[in-house]
Amino acid sequence: MIGLNIIEQYIPESYQPTPFQMLTTNPFAEISSTIPPVAMQTFLVIMILLVITGTIFDVIHKKSAKYFFQNMKKTKSASDRQIGGGETTKIALATAAHDVLASGEFCNARRRIAHLLTMYGFIFFAATTSIMIFSFSNGSSSTPTILPLLWHLGALMVCVGGYWFWFFIRVDVAAEGNSPFRFMLADLFVVSLVACTTFALIWSFALGTGSEFWSWFFFLLFVASTLALFGGVPWSKFAHMFFKPAAAFEKRISEANGTMNNLPEPADKPAQFGLGIKRQLPRQY
Questions:
Q1: Spatial distance between the Cα atoms of 162 and 198, rounded to a whole number of angstroms
Q2: Distance CA 113, CA 131 (A)
Q3: pLDDT tens, 61-119?
Q4: Are 121 and 156 in contact (CB under 8 A)?
Q5: Considering the entire predicted model, what is its pTM?
Q6: Is 55 left (phi over 0), alpha (psi -120 to 50) or beta?
């Protein structure tokens, strides 16, 4: 008993992690005494429903699904050869491996790397957020260290890829000379995504500093940017991530059955440095 009393007097009554210790700390468990876990879980479910309803609205409004189904039906009727189930499965797997998992549609290496950083970072961030909120936000069980680590890593990957794209790779900035701070409604997805992960990292850091004002300030900004990200699906390019795999699959099908979407077959790749002309980025603005 004497030994326990000696140990207890060196343990603070309320443990406050440092900013760097927050890398291995579940931030949602830290605020569970103020915001009930059921409230965080309800908010997360609402965000999922917003994505579903927003995507359905976008599909109906832009008639994307109708176009794809009509185009695939037209391609099938005009095809030179029929594609069996085995070949269709092979094409679907190739589409998933090359166009989805590896972002093979990007020829520019910088754009491809930035896209992969953002995509996988968002997957890590979203998945670990869901797990930590639904399974470890009540504080009754300790969160595995790998989850907050992946949460912070995913947010950082999104920030690196997103800011790299926004300031240095965007066509209207890199090639057309527009200001990187120029914002259009089509930019809502990128801006809200980067803002969401940026405020999440700052909020986690503020929790570690013990500053109640700044931690709640950046938490509210984190929530607001999350609402903009998932609630703005009909006006942003969020639903685009669901259309791209379908478009890539349909393109591969049209190449396999010979229709080529009524386009001519690709010619031989021209010489990159033929006739003494060296290709360069269009920066003549």
A1: 10
A2: 27
A3: 776 666 667 766 776 666 667 777 888 888 889 888 888 888 887 878 888 999 999 99
A4: yes
A5: 0.80
A6: alpha
- Rounded CA-CA distance 71/260 in Å is 11
The whole-angstrom separation of Cα 155 and Cα 143 is: 18
Give the per-residue SS3 of the chain.
CHHHHHHHCCCCCCCCCCCCHHHHCCHHHHCCCCCCHHHHHHHHHHHHHHHHHHHHHHHHHHCHHHHHHHHHHHHHHCCCCCCCHHHHHHHHHHHHHHHHHCCCCCCCHHHHHHHHHHHHHHHHHHHHHHHHHHHCCCCCCCCCCHHHHHHHHHHHHHHHHHHHHHHHHCHHHHCCCCCCCCCCHHHHHHHHHHHHHHHHHHHHHHHHHCCHHHHHHHHHHHHHHHHHHHHCHHHCCCCHHHHHHHHHHHHHHHHHHCCHHHCCCCCCCCCCCHHHCCCCCCCCC
Closest to 164 in 3D by CA, of 109, 127, 227, 205:
109
Q: Give me 216's structure tokens.
A: 């709640």
Q: How far apart are the first and last CA of the chain?
A: 78
* 220-257 pLDDT per residue, tens: 999 999 999 999 888 777 777 777 777 788 778 777 77
CA dist., res. 14 & res. 212, Å (int): 14
Smallest Cα–Cα separation from 122: which of 143, 103, 138, 140? 103
Give me 93's structure tokens.
């797997």
Encoded tokens for 244: 């791209």
Where are the domains positioned within the chain?
36-66+92-247
